[in-house]
Amino acid sequence: MKTIAIVDDDIYIGNMLEEVLMKEGYGVLRAYSGTEALMLLSKRMPDLVLLDLMLPGLSGEQILPKIKNIPVIVVSAKVDLDNKVDLLYRGAVDYITKPFNTKELLARIAVALRNTAVPQKILHFDAITLNTVNFAVSVNDAELKLTRTEYAILKCLMMNSGGAVSKSQLLDHISIDTPDCTESSLKIHVSNLRKKLRDASGKDYIEAVWGIGFKLAK
Asked: Is the pTM of this model over 0.70?
């Protein structure tokens, strides 16, 4: 089931969107401010974000660049063309103006999800390269031998290199590639992966984020 995060401080619009999306079979997450949205996204990774611009605290324009590897559709009452173009250049995949037709919004959501369904074949982070087709990993162009679990952890961290990945989020995502990692063994696998990357590069790429999980750091 695909999950969509609604970031909008308008309770009525948020409730209406939640009802429509749930009827279509989507899971729904809610945030009512920019700050709350960033906290939510640090713990959960939805498949798409519906982002209002006029938010209390941090505005939609401020948090958009902080949302990495998740398609964002801006849903706003602002109709200025230059504003729309700027937001698309800054990372939004689409822009729909309030008030909107729910059928049109659902169609735009389906298109955005379809366009992001094909995973990136080659992932890069600093000197690390990961090939999702042949499962090869290299550091400074030298092959790095990883276990299946270490590869899955690195792949998840590289796909979310813009921020921290929570332990629960990491376990959920790596279960696609490996079934043998548990919450109790995760720290050991991460430690082994960190050592292999450090030995190959001289850098400590994996950083623990207290109270959340882990992230890649250059």
From this structure: no
Retrieve residue 150's tokens. 């270490």
Q: Mapping DSSP to helix (H, G, I), strand (E, B) and coil, where does residue 51 land?
A: strand
Same-domain check for residues 164 and 193: yes
End-to-end C-alpha distance for the chain, whole angstroms:
34
Domain limit, last residue, from 88, 115, 142? 115
What CATH code is carried by the domain that includes residue 17? 3.40.50.2300
Tens-of-pLDDT digits for all 218 residues of the chain? 789 999 999 999 999 999 999 999 999 999 999 999 999 988 888 999 999 999 998 999 999 988 877 899 999 887 676 777 778 877 888 899 888 899 999 999 998 888 766 555 788 899 999 988 788 999 998 999 999 889 989 998 988 776 788 888 788 777 766 666 777 788 899 999 999 999 999 999 999 888 788 889 87
Alpha-carbon span 70 to 55, nearest angstrom:
19
